Amino acid sequence: MIGITALVPAEVIYSCGEAALDLNNFVPTSKLEPEDKLCAWTAIWRELVLRGEVSIDRLVVVAGGDCYNALVEGEKIELAGKPTHYFTYPFDGNAGAMKEQLEALADFLGGIRDEAFGEVAELKKLALEVHEMRCSGEVGAEQGFLIEVSGSDLMGSLEKYRSAIEEVEETEVDYEYRVALLGIPPIYPDFHAFLQELGMHVVFDEMPFEFIRHTGKSLGEVAGSYAGYTFAGHISRRLRFLESQLKRHRVDAVIHFQQFACHHKLEDRLLRDFLHEKLGYPYITIEADLPSPTPQQARLRLEAFAERLGEVV
Amino acid sequence: MLIGLDVGSRAAKAAYRLEDGYEYRVVSSHSWEDLLRGREGVVISTGYFRKRVPHDFNVTEITTAIYGVRHFIRRRVDVIVDIGGQDMKVIDVERNDFVMNDKCSAGTGAFLEYIASYFALDVAELARLHRSARCAAPINSTCSVFAQSEVVSRLVEGYTKEEVIRGIHYAFARKIARMVPRHARSVALIGGTAKNAGVVEALSEVLGVRVHVPGEPQVVNAVGAVEYYLAREGER
After folding, report:
1. Can you list the pairs that A308-311 forms with residues at least 24 positions away whose Cβ atoms lie under 8 Å?
2. In order along chain A (313 residues), what is the average pLDDT of each group of 10 residues?
3. Is pLDDT of B173 > 60?
4. What is the ipTM of this complex?
């Protein structure tokens, strides 16, 4: 089992005959209180691996273009004896550089043996269909989020992921506002359900949508696709992408979710200036630290946000 | 009778709507039940505990602040600053936006209580000492921990207690001002801390705009809860 710490092309991992396990998926429900902590996400998965509470054979850390806390936590795990590879997204979105990264990743995993590119691409196409149903109010945000966020590791098994998609239940979502959730996924496991209670249907989860958007039927195609992973590149590219997606998803309001001690927090001002000041989207920033049910202060702010939307939307 | 019930982190406030206006009462938040004893009517709750107390309707204190300020200050304000016991909200009425400081005590009533307790004073005495200071001691930090070390340093340097308190009020005002949007031309200050004339003076000066304080700043949200209810009923 290959542990991953952010978006690592699962197409390559499965094509090398291995399975992926996104360590972040253990964090929102964890009760662990990590020592030596900046970001709760990275500190908790580091502790889970070091304590043997999550079992992996090797680790692939996204060390460039996304999370720099993860780089150091990966080094701690490597120094404790776990074979670790450092994966880097090219900041300029260069597909050639991306392909070199994928080749290095494949080498670390023992080389491509049993190409799974086609099957993963098909699964992600199915996940995108679930996404479209979510957009049209036929799938709840909580269920849609689970399918999309699981696009990073495909639930550790292509069969399991296929079953999960097939088991998605069609429903009729009752909502007042269409909301985009930007930034890192919420560390509060009840967050989507709480927003739904307030009549806010999350139709666009920025990072989870990226997890299912990128794929390809060959190493070259995968490289070309992941080179366009906007969360890891220059902010201007991301802002352009968000502008088009918010329009396409007919979004009424934006929630920017950020994490204490995460460098992405510094992007809040840029996102707010562009999306709120320039494009006019109602905008709220929620900052979290440790995993827990959504705290009262955040609930109050979101409830007030929904009330204010009632006056403007 | 319509009863606006605002149960916050430190104080519980009630506004009882009478034929000729409002009657108010303020108690500790733990004694909120006293506010309903012997009173019958429609309860519209707000504040952190709005869903934990008996109510017919509930609404957040961001919305009640807007309706409450409209009731008390019969002129247009661009921004409302609500200094609560444990948080501070800046509501941009013009742009229908708001920000909150709920992560630490900087810019909240708890910060001033902490400073008052350091000087063994009641928080209500801070304004009097502010007035009698000849200048404001330079204080940069509004973090409770760092501010105390700055307070000690200024006292050691020879500043008086009054000058340090005045300096604290200016540091407090600068903290709030960083959250107030630049376009604000008129600001309303609500919450119990608005009774502190030192804070009002410092905030007016730092922002460079007139700061309006309603006659009863602590009960604005309780009144706003009733006013919100009336506006919604009127729409129906």
Report:
1. A308/A282, A308/B62, A308/B63, A308/B96, A308/B97, A308/B98, A309/A176, A309/A177, A309/A200, A309/A252, A309/A253, A309/A282, A310/A176, A311/B96
2. 96 97 96 91 96 96 86 96 96 95 97 94 98 97 97 97 97 96 96 97 98 96 96 94 98 95 91 94 93 90 89 62
3. yes
4. 0.75
C-alpha to C-alpha distance for A216 and B93, rounded to whole angstroms: 48
Contacting residues of A for B59, CB less than 8 Å apart = 307
Inspect the interface and report whether the beta carbons of A276 and B97 lie closer than 8 Å. Answer: yes
d(CA B200, CA B198): 5
Domain B79-212, architecture per CATH: 2-Layer Sandwich (3.30)
Among B102, B103, B221, which would you mutate to test the A interface (most chain A Cβ atoms within 10 Å of its Cβ)? Answer: B102
Q: Where are the domains of chain B?
A: 2-62+218-235, 79-212
Nearest by CB to A303, which of B60, B87, B103? B60
Query: Residue B87's closest CA among B103, B66, B65?
Result: B103
Examine the fold and report which residue of A108, A134, A159 is the final residue of a domain before the chain moves on: A108
Name the closest residue on chain B to residue A302, using Cα atoms.
B60
User: How far apart are the C-alpha atoms of B65 and A256, rounded to whole Å?
Assistant: 24
Domain B2-62+218-235: assigned CATH number:
3.30.420.40
**Chain A contacts to B (CB-CB under 8 A):** 276, 282-283, 287, 296-297, 300-301, 303-304, 307-308, 311-312
Nearest CB to A311 within list B48, B96, B103: B96
The CATH number of the domain holding residue A237 is 3.40.50.11900
User: Into how many domains does chain A fold?
Assistant: 2
Distance from CA of B102 to the nearest CA of A (A): 7
Range of the domain at A302: 173-312
CB B109 within 8 A of CB B189: no
- Answer whether B60 sits within 8 Å of A297, measured CB to CB: no
Query: What is the distance in angstroms between the Cα of B63 and the nearest Cα belonging to chain A?
Result: 7
Give the closest-approach CA distance of A257 to chain B in angstroms.
14
Question: Which residues of chain A are within 8 Å of residue B103 when distances are taken between CB atoms?
Answer: 287
Residue with tokens 């307790």: B117
Question: Which pLDDT band holds residue B144 (cuts at 50, 70, 90)?
Answer: low
Contact B196, B126 (CB under 8 A): yes
pLDDT tens digit string along B87-143? 889 999 877 778 887 666 677 888 899 899 999 999 999 999 999 999 999 998 777
